Amino acid sequence: MKENLQQIKKAKSGDTEAFAELYRIYYADLYRFALYTLKNPSDAEDAVSETVIDVFSSIRKLRTEESFQAWIFKILSAKCKRRFRESRHLSDDYLLDTAKEDKSVDLTDNVHIRNCFFRLKNEERLIISMHIFAGYTSREIAKILHINANTIRSKESRALKKLSAWLNDE
Fold it and tell me: Rounded CA gap, 163 and 24, in Å?
C-alpha cells in the first residue's frame, strides 16, 4: 500500500495516468470481492465499473491517501449491497456456467470452496467478503452494514463454521 501512496496523491491532483495505474492495481481485488458477494460475473463487473466511476469523479474529496483502499472498498460494498437488494437470486450452476465463459474469472481457484461459499446466505457472504477481500475489521463492517459489531463477529463465526463443515463433508 505504501508504494501506492504516490500514485494516489497524483490521482488526487488529477493525473489520469496515475488513476489508471491504481485501477490496474486494485481491479482484481475489487472484482473478486464483488463476484464473491454478488455471485454473478456481470453484476460484479457492473458494480466495479460503477465504483471506479464514482471514485474517479470524487477522488479529490479523499481526505488521506492512506485511506484509499478502505474508501474504494466502502464504495464497492455499498454498490454490492444495493445490487444485492435489487438482484434476482441466481443459482450456483448459472454462476459457474457464466464464469467458464468469463475469461477474467480464474477457475483454477478451488471450485469446491467457491460452491460452498455460495451456499452461505447473502449477508454471510457479504460479511466474509468484506473481512477477507477488503480487509475490514468487524467494527468497520458493523458501521457500514449498520449492525452491532458483536453480531458481525457472531455471524462471521457461524458462517465460517458452516463453510468448514461443508468443506469437510464433501
Answer: 31
Backbone angles phi, psi at 137, to 5 degrees: -85, 170
Distances (CA, A) of 40 to 44, 68, 70, 79, 144: 6, 26, 23, 14, 22
Taking a C-beta distance cutoff of 8 angstroms, is the pair 72, 12 a contact? no
Alpha helices in the chain (DSSP H): 5-12, 16-38, 41-58, 68-86, 92-101, 111-119, 122-132, 138-145, 149-169
Rounded CA separation 96/40 (Å) = 9
pLDDT digits (tens, 9 = 90+) for 40-90: 898 899 999 999 999 999 999 999 898 898 899 889 988 988 887 665 444
**Mean per-residue pLDDT of the chain:** 81
Please write the tens of the pLDDT for every residue from 41-55. Answer: 988 999 999 999 999
Q: Please, what sign has the CA dihedral across residues 86, 62, 140, 44?
A: positive
User: What is the number of other CB atoms lying within 10 angstroms of the CB of residue 50?
Assistant: 18
The alpha carbon of 40 is separated from its chain's Cα centroid by a whole number of angstroms, namely 12
- The CA distance from 96 to 13, in Å, is 41
Radius of gyration (C-alpha) of the chain in whole angstroms: 17
- Grid coordinates representing 119 are 451456499
